[in-house]
Specification:
The structure holds 2 protein chains of 2 kinds. Chain A is α/β, with parallel strands linked by helices. Chain A has 3 domains: 206 residues, FAD/NAD(P)-binding domain (3-Layer(bba) Sandwich), CATH 3.50.50.60; 110 residues, FAD/NAD(P)-binding domain; 105 residues, Enolase-like, domain 1 (2-Layer Sandwich). Chain A is built from 13 helices and 24 strands. In chain A, strands 1, 2, 3, 4, 5, 6 and 19 form a 7-stranded mixed β-sheet that branches. A 5-stranded parallel β-sheet of chain A has the order 8-15-9-10-11. Chain A has a 5-stranded antiparallel β-sheet with strand order 20-21-24-23-22, with helices on both faces. Chain A is globular and about 70 Å long. Chain B folds into 3 domains: 103 residues, OB fold (Dihydrolipoamide Acetyltransferase, E2P), CATH 2.40.50.100; 80 residues, Irregular (Dihydrolipoamide Transferase); 217 residues, Chloramphenicol Acetyltransferase. In chain B, helix 7 crosses helix 8 and helix 7 crosses helix 10. The longest helix of chain B has 21 residues. The chains are: A alpha/beta, B alpha+beta. Chains A and B meet through loops of A and helix 3 of B.
């Protein structure tokens, strides 16, 4: 048998890859991590984290605009978009440095370069690492592909970094545009819409499906849409982008809205229409690795059709979320280590969060999905206007909706919109993981006064027992 | 402080015993060495002595209670200066403690914990039998999620037989749900709907069920069997039938009916039924004969058999069977009777015991006549033997009476010409 350099090589240092590498090392494996650009991946460098830093700024802007309500008067508020983006970059850099330190502490060998697979044997896979100077060849018994994804372009329009922005440009604008069209109303599109709107930009959202945040429960989407419209955003649903013309300092678009072409002009346009997995040039054809709709196919333990080669995170099937990638990393490393008593991921128990204002968070099935599966359901709803803490915060817009299986009392979905709901959803994640029924949730004591009491009330409402509604 | 008096181990191997008798009562003063109770084990009955001085505060197990495990408290002894109110407070506190512990174990509950508060209608409450099935036999703590537990309960799945795939073997929803499709579980109480058909019980089936349950629960049955040589009976039957010229056909069954009647007339004590305050002795022999019909059975009656000849019996029987099979029997033709016969001989059944047809006192179950080697005068010869079994209601027919009846019956069957008398 050939002597391997490592028990495990991980290609890609995002939230899937670096977590898998650290976990593997903790379980006693010798591990190498290959990262082409930046440790922490898109999430940490150009996704989840820097956008949260930006949204914190727009939240503060929103508060400053409304301090009168709390008894303050402030005049001459000045804002510098460059300082806002600078802070966002600083936050990302701080965390990326932290990952580097964590990997070192856990004795993971980090290679800076582009890693790909070369022909090897069952027990010895070969990874070539292309660095600026050389090609390095390493052998490992197991490989995890965690190369992530990038933003998608349309056939007739690609981001140019000047007038047609992708997420990177949108996170580091040289100056605030006066107007902005956002194509796509998923989490990324909605966060940018909210951010730029709060900073005073004239925002138009174009969504091909009938509602914005199309993966969320319709009741939730409706509340966000009403809020956005109230804030002056122009929301176009059932709307398809047909053409984009760029000019010197603006873009003009044609959008098909309900069968009619509308011309919409703005200074900039952001494409937020989804992702494409990074599967190119990885040498996947040297092994029995299959791809479906652009994403690598795995079994429930994240193993590809090639024994010993795993794939996790955005390069595999959705949902494309950092926490799903990290959990997959842990799970497949435990599988490699031969752990018993591990359980495959239940995709109906992965929470999803959108950090626009108002925040959106959900887990499990929407009402529509539950009904399409012919499930016998009970629905509870509780508006934040009935919650003391939300009123005290001056942020009582939104609601919590819970969906139970009427026959078994299983919590099959929870959908929230409103203040800090992204921090609340984990309560329902735990409830789902521990397989509680409505009884345990009803008999849980929620602290008063907190926003979380609305979760309790929503559960009670599903069984017609709400107290404050 | 009170002292628990524990179930003593009266021998090294004793695990449990029966408290056969209390020799003290609550409030009695005892001194160390006093006899307080008698305990019965599988081997012997022994006396238990008090080990301290005091007053018997509370007796915790009733006289006659069986299977009391060694070291389980059987009574509480109050020491000097204590009275019963101290004890009650202590017991109450203990109860409260137990309750709060129950509530803490949300996720790792024992199965017997009640979920009454989620039950919205009485039919959802498991009956005590079902509840027992739901318990682990070792009373072992079972780790299961609330959802899995509820689904198991809804589907009557015995969770003590499931393997949990969760942390520390906790049973998850998926473990409960997969037993529909996965056969690796040892015992599944579920029958899938494709494997059976529900047929509504007819009024006749319900009547049969009611009557037989009544019979088996109320009438103490005992059974007597006897072998009858029917060679002579078969001879006479073929002689009779050879003269019939197709006008009649006497069956063995007709002759059995006649023999039963003749025997009952000889032993009238067996021709009786139980009526709580009285025992009714019949003066005629009205013989009910079990007839299998579509969806059940019925027992039409041949009345006054004692005064009928074989020809008449045969004719009556034929007419009654026809009516029974076409559903045209009148109530007076099947309600009543003093004695029943059930014959499964034509199916090759060697012998069987029948359920008494209440309120009658006896039923005779007829097996098939078959050639068997028998010993007659120190010689093994081949004879046609029919085994019959009499089921008797011991309230009205005692063993000797039943035996006498059977012996008379055998006599008539083996010597059929006696029936002519």
């Amino acid at each position: 048998m050939t002597k391997n350099d490592y028990d495990l090589i991980v290609i890609g240092g995002g939230p899937g890859g670096y977590v898998a590498a650290i976990k593997a090392s903790q379980l006693g494996m010798s591990v190498a991590l290959v990262e082409d650009k930046h440790l922490g991946g898109i999430c940490l460098n150009w996704g989840c984290i820097p956008t949260k830093a930006l949204l914190r700024a727009s939240e503060i802007r929103h508060m400053l605009d409304n301090v009168g309500e709390f008894g303050f008067t402030i005049s001459n508020i000045e804002m510098d978009i460059n300082n806002i983006t600078k802070r966002s970059r600083k936050v990302a850099a701080q965390l990326s440095g932290g990952i580097s330190h964590l990997l070192k502490k856990n004795k993971v060998h980090v290679f800076e370069g582009f890693g790909y697979l070369d022909k090897g044997t069952v027990d010895s896979k070969i990874i070539i690492i292309k660095t600026e100077k050389e090609l390095i060849r390493k052998k490992a018994q197991n490989v995890i592909i965690a190369t992530g994804a990038r933003s998608r372009n349309l056939p007739f329009v690609s981001s140019d970094g000047i007038n047609i922005w992708d997420y990177k440009t949108a996170m580091t604008p040289p100056k605030l545009p006066s107007s902005l069209i956002i194509i796509g109303s998923g989490a990324i599109g909605m966060e940018f819409a909210s951010f730029y709107n709060d900073l005073g930009v004239n925002v138009t959202v174009v969504e091909a499906l009938p509602s914005i945040l199309p993966n969320e429960d319709e009741d939730i989407s409706k509340i966000v849409e009403n809020n956005f419209k109230k804030r002056g955003m122009n929301i176009k649903t059932n709307a398809t982008l047909k053409s984009v013309k760029t000019h010197d300092k603006s873009v003009s678009t044609e959008v098909l809205v309900n069968g009619k072409i509308e011309k919409i002009n703005s200074e900039k346009i952001i494409l937020a229409i989804g992702i494409i997995a990074n599967t190119e040039n990885l040498g996947l054809n040297n092994y029995n690795i299959k791809i479906d709709k652009g994403h690598i196919i795995t079994n429930e333990w994240l193993e590809t059709d090639e024994k010993g080669i795993y794939a996790i995170g955005d390069v595999t099937a959705g949902p494309w979320l950092a926490h799903k990638a990290s959990h997959e990393g842990i799970l497949c490393v435990e599988k490699i280590a031969g752990h018993k008593n591990i359980i495959p991921i239940d995709k109906s128990s992965i929470p999803g969060c959108t950090y626009c204002r108002p925040q959106v968070a959900s887990i499990g099935l929407t009402e529509k999905n539950a009904k399409s599966q012919n499930l016998n359901i009970k629905i509870g709803k509780f508006p934040f206007i009935g919650n003391g803490k939300a009123i005290a915060l001056g942020d009582a817009e939104g609601m919590i909706k819970t969906i139970f299986n009427k026959d078994t009392g299983e919590l099959i979905g929870a959908h929230m919109v409103g203040p800090e709901v992204t921090e609340l959803i984990q309560g329902f994640s735990i409830a789902k993981k521990l397989e509680t029924t409505e009884q345990e949730l009803m008999h849980t004591i929620f602290p008063h006064p907190t926003l979380s009491e609305s979760m309790h009330e929503s559960v009670l409402d599903a069984y017609n027992q709400a107290i404050h509604y | 402080m009170s002292i628990d008096i524990l179930m003593p181990a009266l021998s090294p191997t004793m695990e449990e015993g029966t408290l056969s008798k209390w020799l003290v009562k609550e409030g009695d003063k005892v001194v160390s060495g006093d006899l307080i109770a008698e305990i019965e084990t599988d081997k012997a009955t022994m006396e238990v002595e008090a080990i301290d001085d005091g007053v018997i505060g509370k007796i915790l197990v009733n006289e006659g209670q069986e299977a009391i495990k060694v070291n389980v408290p059987i009574a509480i002894l109050l020491l000097d200066g204590e009275d019963i109110t101290d004890l009650n407070t202590e017991l109450d506190e203990e109860k409260k403690d137990n309750k709060s512990i129950e509530k803490e174990t949300i996720f790792e509950t024992k199965l017997e914990d009640n979920e009454e508060n989620i039950v919205t209608s009485p039919e959802h409450i498991l009956n005590s039998e079902q509840k027992e099935e739901f318990l682990d036999t070792n009373n072992k703590r079972i780790f299961i999620t609330p959802l899995a537990k509820r689904i198991a309960k809804q589907r009557d799945i015995n969770i003590s037989l499931l393997d949990g795939s969760g942390p520390n073997g906790r049973i998850l929803k998926i473990d409960v749900e997969k037993i529909n499709v996965n056969k690796n579980v040892k015992n599944i109480n579920i029958v899938s709907p494709e494997n059976f058909e529900l047929v509504k019980n007819s009024a006749m089936r319900k009547t049969i069920a009611d009557r037989l349950v009544k019979s088996k629960t109320e009438a103490p049955h005992f059974y007597l069997s006897i072998d009858c040589n029917i060679d002579e009976l078969l001879n006479i039957r073929s002689v009779l039938n050879s003269k019939a010229k197709d006008k009649y056909k006497i069956s063995v069954n007709d002759m059995i009916i006649k023999a039963s009647s003749a025997a009952l007339m000889k032993v009238p004590k067996a021709n009786a039924s139980w009526e709580n305050e009285n025992t009714k002795y019949f003066k005629t022999t009205d013989i009910s004969v079990a007839v299998a019909i579509e969806g059940g059975l019925i027992t039409p009656i041949i009345e006054d058999v004692q005064s009928k000849g074989l020809l008449e019996i045969s004719k009556d029987m034929k007419s009654l069977v026809d009516k029974a099979k076409s559903g045209k029997l009148l109530p007076e033709e099947y309600v009543g009777g003093s004695f029943s016969i059930s014959n499964l001989g034509m199916y090759g059944i060697k012998e069987f015991s029948a359920v008494i047809n209440p309120p009658q006192g006896c039923i005779l179950a007829i097996g098939s006549g078959e050639k068997r080697p028998v010993v007659i005068k120190e010689q093994i010869i081949i004879a046609t033997i029919m085994t019959v079994t009499l089921s008797c209601d011991h309230r009205v027919v005692d063993g000797a009476v039943g035996a006498e009846l059977l012996s008379e019956f055998k006599n008539f069957i083996e010597n059929p010409s006696l029936m002519l008398l």
